[in-house]
Amino acid sequence: MASRGRGKDKLKKSEDGWEEWGGYMKAKQEKLRQQYAKNGLKSEIFKGISIYVNGYTKPSSDELKRMVIENGGMYQHYLYKLQVTHIIATSMANSKISKDLKHMKIVKPEWITDSISCGKLLSYIPYQLFTAQSRLQSGIGGFSVPKSSISTEEDSEVKTTVSKSQINQYRNFTEDVEVCPDSDLSDEDDSILGNQFEEGESDGNLSDNNNLSEMFVRRGSEENGSAKDNNHEQAVKRSLSLKKDRIKSQYSESRSLDQSNSVSNLESPYKLDPSKALNVSNTGTSKGHSPAKMAKAGDSNFLSEFYGNSRLHHLSTWGAEWKAYVTKLQSENSDNFPGRDKLREFHQESLLRTGESESHASVRGRPERVIMHIDMDCFFVSVGLLDRPDLRGKPVGVTHSKNKGMSAPIPGSDPHFEMQQWHLKGKKKLGDVYEKLPVDLQSFDTFTSMAEIASCSYEARKAGVKNGMFMGPAKKLCPELQTIPYNFEKYQEISTILYDTVASYTHDIEAVSCDEMLVDCTDLLSDTGVTPLDFTSILRQEIYTKSGCTASTGLGSNVLLAKLATRNAKPNGQYYVESYDVLEFIKDVSVRDLPGVGWSMNRKLSNMNVKTCGDLQSVPLSTLQKEFGSKTGQSLYNSCRGIDDRPIKMENERKSVSAEINYGIRFQKEHECVKFFNDLSEEVHNRLQKVKRKGKVVTLKLKVRREDAPKETAKFMGHGICNSLSRSITLPLATDDASCIAKESLMLLHALKVDVTDLRGIGIQVTRLEAEAGIKSDKSACGHQSILNFTVAQKTSPDKPAGKPIQSPNKSRSVKTLPTMVPKMNDIDVFLQRSSVQKGERGAFKGDNVPEIDSNAYKDFYGEDTEKRSSSLSQSLVEKHRITLMSGHTLVDELSRRKTAKGFLPPLPTLPSFTSPESTPSPPESGFLPFSTRSNSSATAICSTLDFLPSPSQIDQEVLKELPPDIRRQIEQEIKSKQPDTSKSSTIIHDSQEAGCSYWPDPVTTDMITRSPEDDTPIVALPSPSQIDLDCLNALPKELQDELKSAYKHQTTQADMQHKSPTKLASPSKSKKSPLFKVPKGRATKKRKLSPKKLSFSNKKSKSIEQKEVDHDTVLISIEDDVSGIGPRLTENASFDNENVAEAQPETKPVAEEINLCGAVHIKDVRNLLKEWLNSCPVPQEEDVEVITNYLSQLILDKNLELVDLVLKALNRYIHKLNNNVWRNSLRHIVNNTQCLIHSLHGSQLNIQYMKTLL
DNA sequence: ATCCTCCCCTAC
DNA sequence: TAAGGTAGGGGAGGAT
Ligand SMILES: Nc1ccn([C@H]2C[C@H](O)[C@@H](COP(=O)(O)OP(=O)(O)OP(=O)(O)O)O2)c(=O)n1
Ligand SMILES: [Mg+2]
Ligand SMILES: [Mg+2]
């Protein structure tokens, strides 16, 4: 407000003469006059263009005037900044330029002549007398080139030159050969909005048609009901003229400072790669090598090579940088916003024009926030087209693909297979074709390129092409699609312009990405008095003027509305969703457009028959929460009503730092893998240092080729169809040390037991970040602390029972980790082995053992013997621990899979520095003890131990003595709750959730409807079971046919049974809780693991899982028993349990028995049983499978579908972990049987989308 | 109840 | 050929 007065003054002052109202009117009249001449127009190439000719030009000014007017443009005799869109000049004194005109479009006359000869309006950018780049250079240079890129400035200049020459060539070429498509950026605007413009203009003031005003005005007027169109135009123009000077100055100033600091340093080192700078194709390095070359295995340059070419890496890096930049702006708390002066001036003008007084609405009442979302239009394409005006108006995509979407299929790959898998997951990479057709193999026949299109022009979008789509399918959708290469440096430059421009108005920004941000305009608007749409018009114009790229903006009272508005505004437009109009506006918005609703959720909603926000509004909150979870449900509920409380996040604190690569991973040898881990760890280390953080938790994320996926992927060097796994470990102290991270990561890799040749993706993430502060503490995590712990452990252990001392302090994590002090791996191993062998219990070792094993593995990696090892880490591990294995490889598995190695082992020094073999353990810090550190310390300890502490024999003995008790405890605990992980758990169905979904009929009970919205194929309830069954069978794969048949039989039987004797079991729906069976439960959980054999549920031996027919007998019997309530449960129980079940069984029988699995009734117990079973049996026993199947069948008959769902989920989760095909097949078998039965009985199936990939 | 791990999902 | 990264929200299941 205060500034308003000032604005007036300025108006008067302005030199262009534009300031006078009279001048404005005059210009307007002139414009109209010229328009009359339209009748004789040769074309409308220059529609919206208004030129001013400065000085001597090659085609004379008169000539230019004629050319422009004849082709729909305007000519200004005076330099009315607000009116003139382009200044035509052949040369211009620097002095002149520097001041007022820097931000004007100063263009060479060739722009006019070329455009005419081309028949289209070409982008003025290549014809600029002074390129935007050169003007901005100082600022940008500081920013982008921070470090490694040595030559930023130099390069940029060079680059500019190069690009120009290229452009020229191109231009010429196009002229000769093709007709230029349409327009440059400004033209685009016109073309896109042109019609609308007309309307807007009708208002009256619009007389000025410069493209600028057009762009902004029309949009504003159309879309926004509130703002005044007139204001927009003028605002825009004025802002332009006024701003330029100031903007510039401040630009350079603030830029260098702010950016250099915050942004620049964050930059990704890989940008520099010369190759990428000019995409043209320096790729020499990357290219031309054998496929193996790319493999990261050996390449020392792999990381930089990959990251330098990864658009997503750049995107992420930039996003983080801008967030940090904004955080910094906020912290500076500056109130210097040079851009606002322009707004104030504009506002003053508008007041003058309208005759309104200040007290205007803008001032008083803006009770609610005004949030703006701004996003560059097809960003990469827009930037890329600056150098390729000839492609404007054409469908264009940015991609690495150099051919036209064709590529030689990769020999061992199976594109069809992958396509099917994608279909299951529903990705859009293949385009609509993919989504619509079950499998469209044909699309691959002609266009096979799997290069992704980062961004495509709106022309391409009309044909169905989307960002992220593969080139092949895109070509199929749009054969004329043109491609342009990446130009990462340029994206950075334009991005900088965007951020700097916005930051000149306000720092209330939330960086979303390099081409997008959220801005809280509330303060800015009240301060300057401009209306939201005026501001936006001015801003967009300014950005366009500076960058040559268009942006679209959305305005609303919250983030959600602002984003939706932007979507509505694109391309090159703006839109304000006024509060009173929210419901009307949002009613028809597709739910898919809601932020947070992606492919998956959209499908779930779609299955619920919810397509639009209006549809969604009719779904009760409770249903949404049941279906999607508490928060997600609430969020959906609010979003579809236009409600969004999310604040703009201007300060950003990093919560994690990671580096991952899921491309080009093909290891042949372990040492390659180890090297990669070291390199990646180094990368993480560098990133941590950049943000000055250290972290306590290291997480390893892997993508592992799915067993049924071909070794060669359809996409060159892609990851193909994979399972994803992750494992984390908590360190005692935060670290950013590369070697520590590498060690821990390798340990985790070991724990995951993956064959390195099947690795397809690797990521290392560090979380629980802390400020870098403590200098010394850093390294410690691995080494120092470990040592401390170690020492303590030793001491303590002798004195105290192993684990207690440790336990006491914190319990932060797994208590289990006993403080045990096992110094060496060897010892531990021995110990473990002994115990295992002797006792025959594998369970006993689980928790603690893990570390040791890992450590061994670790040794292997680092040790010289590496070569010995088989490719698979797990194998090597196994080899070492044969003895252990004998007891059951379950043991190994369990150990390995234990969450991070929490082990009891005392933390040992990881760092080499500590290596002294004798290293006596330093006293552990009390803080560290097992608890808090447990996982870490243990892991670390292990590593260090192995490496550096060769032989503490003494320790070992002690350890052995002490460990047992602890181990036992741990084991017991662990047994109870092993953590299952499912790579794909889905969830959807959960128990009641589905039931909750009102959309589906619940055949059975209310609770468990099987289908969740997720299901792709909504299942229609089929009344007649028999028919259904048949269908099911038919539909199923041949493999399963047999099984299904048998299953079918069972079903029938069961059904019969059911009829005969309805289950009167306990609770109508779920029997789980009956007290009777508690016994079994307890047992199961508590007992440590059974020996593998014991675990097997049934005594039967031998049949391979697959085919054995289901024994009628067994099934029947079990069923009968259950039904009748008499029988002891499954046959297997008896066998099973020696330990567990046996006891329980007897009791069970009584009266209402509950359906159980070897005595386990509660889901918890069932899970534990399943875990043990899976862990103990490398290969599933057919009998066991049958037992499970029978159990599930009973549950189904009991209508306890909820439990069925839970059991299946648990199985899926555990088996996923195993990563074992045989088990997978068994699960498939079980699931098929179950689904068939359910279908026959209820007419629908469980929604098991979560295990779809498995099936 | 709350935290932790391991996932999935989403966004650019 | 192709460069399928990365941060954060959130949910399920488990431990406490
Ligand atoms: N799957 C994707 C999505 C985006 N991007 C990159 C290229 C885009 O140009 C940029 C910005 O993403 P936007 O979602 O803003 O998409 P565009 O700017 O391309 O188009 P528009 O914003 O006009 O819809 O991010 C990418 O590489 N891969
Ligand atoms: Mg964009
Ligand atoms: Mg964007």
Automatic annotation (TrEMBL):
Residue numbers binding Mg(2+): D375, D515, E516
Cofactor note as given: Binds 2 magnesium ions.
Keywords annotated in UniProt: DNA damage, DNA repair, DNA synthesis, DNA-binding, Magnesium, Metal-binding, Nucleotidyltransferase, Nucleus, Transferase
Domain BRCT: from-to ranges: 41-129
Record-linked Gene3D superfamilies: 3.30.70.270, 3.40.1170.60, 5' to 3' exonuclease, C-terminal subdomain, 6.10.250.1490, 6.10.250.1630, BRCT domain, DNA polymerase, Y-family, little finger domain, DNA repair protein Rev1, C-terminal domain
Composition bias type Low complexity, residue spans: 203-214
GO biological-process terms attached to the record: DNA repair; error-free translesion synthesis; error-prone translesion synthesis
UniProt EC number: 2.7.7.-
Polar residues: compositionally biased ranges: 249-267, 278-288, 807-816
Top-rank taxon: Eukaryota
Biased composition (Acidic residues): 178-191
Ranges of Basic and acidic residues composition bias in the record: 216-248
Any one Gene Ontology molecular-function term assigned to this protein's record: damaged DNA binding
EC top class named in words: transferase
The keyword Ubl conjugation appears for this protein: no
PROSITE patterns in alphabetical order: BRCT (PS50172), FORK_HEAD_2 (PS00658), UMUC (PS50173)
CDD domains: BRCT_Rev1 (cd17719), PolY_Rev1 (cd01701), Rev1_C (cd12145), Rev1_UBM2 (cd19318)
Biased composition (Basic residues): 1070-1092
Subcellular location: Nucleus
PANTHER family: DNA REPAIR PROTEIN REV1
Family: Belongs to the DNA polymerase type-Y family.
Protein name (database record): DNA repair protein REV1
Organism, as annotated: Lottia gigantea
